[in-house]
């Protein structure tokens, strides 16, 4: 009898839904949006398409950020307990295979960016200033996508146009072809005369979109990764010599918060906005996942007033990173104090580990530079912090200076290299070096850009990845008030030779018989 009543009730709801849907959908048609072939013919539509391309990149930022940082030796994958996010743990411990969700999502997401760029490049009909700028912005985005694909996967196909159905099953590409295409796209965009430059170092408006200098920095980075040091140095000199960018001179950590969006150090960041009425359009789990594991901590004093609580703790600094800071600038180093907290510093701030609880994936050190504050939140949701309006950083001027230092040193100009490294050190309140080596630049870059999606690809191209991460994931810690416990051990772990490239996703291999797996996968 109860089942019959439930069935009748469900039928009633379905009937109401059918009537409601029919009435809602029975509307008069007003105009025609046209086809893909006719859409890209007005400035208004081109602006909409360009915004869609930017949003595509923003929507893929989470995977881009976490995949690369989890693979580096900067962080532990934390969370509430072992197995809280198995996919992230596999990345961090080098236990992943070709069927890994985040790797697959990043791979397809980069092609999504390239697709949005190709739509603008291939379909735009017209010669207006808006259209010309959009096409060259799209070339920069397309180059960015291919840069990530060639540095992470190596043999991912180059896609330089909108593919016809007969072209969907692309064979593996070659690094040489992809690099040449990255250079071509960026060179054409830079020389087009359509990409703007900031008016001065304090211009916060122009830089919210791709500028000529960001394209130059990206091309310099492409040259650097190929070992074309003289070309890289010359391209970085264009950015530095423009005098449109400078190291942020406020408190070091302040540049990573919403109040400093689009500051003088930003080469490119994906935009967020403080808009409570559209807050779910700002939704992003990036800072929710990175902030300390609120559920195992107690908060009081300054911390309770300042921090955005309700975060998940999936990004904790390794002791090796903290030790590298101490060896380079001392335990009381200014930049260290703005980047990482020790447990004693955490307690002094008003935060402690709950009695009997443990901080999984932690050795007792806590990132400060990526903590979101109450002032960063569109809405301060203590149960689920997903609506910050901190812009998503893609490149800042500090990275440009450090890449320029490496390129200049490798090209034989140690004086320039020393100058650029010392600019970074002076901002970090460190004594300038009297001379500089490649190892100095590597160390400076690790500390300055820790947990900023840079180090993993650097370690691979320098040939340092196996040394740095060969044992990564062998043992996994948890921190308690009594100290560090190592309760989890893996038989399979660490960076191996095959990890010089990420695996072509299994889904791609199954759907495309022309694709071959990368070596070792």
Architecture overview:
With 521 residues, the chain is mainly α. The protein folds into two domains: 40-276 and 393-511, Serine Threonine Protein Phosphatase 5, Tetratricopeptide repeat (Alpha Horseshoe); 277-390, no CATH class. The chain is built from 21 helices and eleven strands. Strand 10 (475-480) and strand 11 (483-489) form a beta hairpin. Helix 9 runs antiparallel to helix 10, helix 9 (212-225) crosses helix 16 (397-410) and helix 16 (397-410) packs antiparallel against helix 18 (438-448). The N and C termini lie far apart (58 Å). The model is unreliable at 1-27 (pLDDT under 50).
What share of the residues does DSSP label as strand, in percent?
5-15%
Structural class: mainly alpha
Q: Helicity level, as a percent range? A: 40-55%
The CATH class of the largest domain, by name, is Mainly Alpha
Number of domains: 2
Calculate the terminal CA-CA distance, rounded to whole Å.
Answer: 58 Å
Q: Total helix count?
A: 21
Q: Let me know the average pLDDT.
A: 93
Domain SusD-like N-terminal: 94-224
Subcellular location: Cell outer membrane
Protein name: Starch-binding associating with outer membrane
Family: Belongs to the SusD family.
Concise structural overview:
By secondary structure, this protein is mostly helical. The chain contains 21 helices and eleven strands. It has two domains: 356 residues, Serine Threonine Protein Phosphatase 5, Tetratricopeptide repeat, CATH 1.25.40.390; 114 residues, no CATH class.
């Amino acid at each position: 009898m109860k089942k019959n009543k439930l069935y009748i009730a469900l039928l009633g709801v379905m009937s109401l839904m059918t009537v409601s849907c029919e009435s809602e959908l029975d509307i008069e048609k007003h105009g025609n949006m046209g086809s893909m072939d006719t859409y890209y013919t007005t400035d208004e539509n081109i602006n909409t398409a360009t915004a869609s391309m930017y949003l595509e990149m923003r929507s893929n930022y989470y995977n881009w950020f976490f995949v690369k940082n989890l693979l580096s030796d900067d962080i532990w994958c934390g969370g509430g307990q072992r197995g809280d996010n198995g996919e992230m743990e596999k990345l961090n411990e080098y236990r992943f295979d070709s069927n890994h969700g985040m790797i697959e999502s990043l791979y397809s997401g980069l092609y999504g960016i390239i697709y949005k760029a190709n739509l603008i490049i291939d379909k735009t009909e017209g010669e207006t200033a808006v259209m010309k700028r959009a096409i060259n912005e799209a070339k920069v985005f397309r180059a960015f996508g291919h840069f990530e694909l060639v540095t992470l996967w190596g043999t991912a196909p180059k896609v330089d146009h909108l593919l016809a159905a007969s072209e969907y099953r692309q064979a593996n590409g070659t690094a040489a072809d992809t690099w040449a295409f990255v250079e071509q796209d960026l060179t054409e965009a830079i020389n087009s005369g359509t990409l703007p430059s900031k008016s001065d170092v304090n211009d916060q408006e122009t830089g919210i979109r791709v500028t000529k200098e960001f394209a130059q920095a990206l091309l310099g980075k492409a040259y650097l990764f190929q070992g074309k040091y003289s070309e890289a140095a010359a391209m970085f000199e264009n950015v530095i010599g423009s005098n449109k960018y400078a190291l942020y001179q406020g408190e070091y950590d302040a540049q990573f918060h919403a109040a400093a969006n689009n500051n003088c150090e930003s080469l490119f960041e994906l935009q967020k906005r403080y808009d409570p009425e559209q807050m779910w359009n700002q939704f992003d789990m990036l800072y929710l996942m990175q902030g300390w594991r609120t559920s195992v901590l107690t908060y009081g004093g300054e911390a309770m007033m300042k921090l955005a609580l309700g975060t998940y703790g999936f990004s904790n600094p390794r002791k090796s990173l903290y030790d590298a800071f101490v060896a380079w600038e001392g335990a009381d180093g200014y930049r260290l104090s703005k980047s990482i907290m020790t447990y004693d510093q955490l307690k002094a701030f008003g935060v402690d580990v709950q009695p009997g609880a443990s901080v999984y994936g932690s050795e007792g050190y806590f990132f400060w530079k990526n903590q979101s504050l109450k002032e960063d939140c569109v809405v301060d949701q203590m149960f689920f912090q997903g609506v910050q309006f901190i812009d998503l950083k893609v490149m800042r001027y500090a990275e440009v200076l450090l890449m320029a230092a490496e390129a200049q040193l490798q090209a034989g100009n140690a004086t320039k290299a020393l100058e650029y490294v010392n600019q970074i050190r002076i901002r970090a309140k460190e004594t300038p070096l009297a001379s500089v080596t490649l190892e100095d630049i590597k160390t400076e870059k690790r500390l300055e850009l820790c947990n900023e999606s840079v180090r993993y690809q650097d370690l691979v191209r320098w040939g340092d990845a196996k040394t740095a991460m060969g044992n990564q994931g062998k043992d996994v810690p948890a921190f308690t008030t009594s100290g560090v416990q190592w309760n989890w051990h893996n038989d399979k772990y660490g960076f191996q030779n095959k990890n010089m490239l990420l695996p072509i996703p299994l889904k791609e291999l199954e759907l495309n018989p022309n694709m071959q797996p990368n070596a070792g996968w």
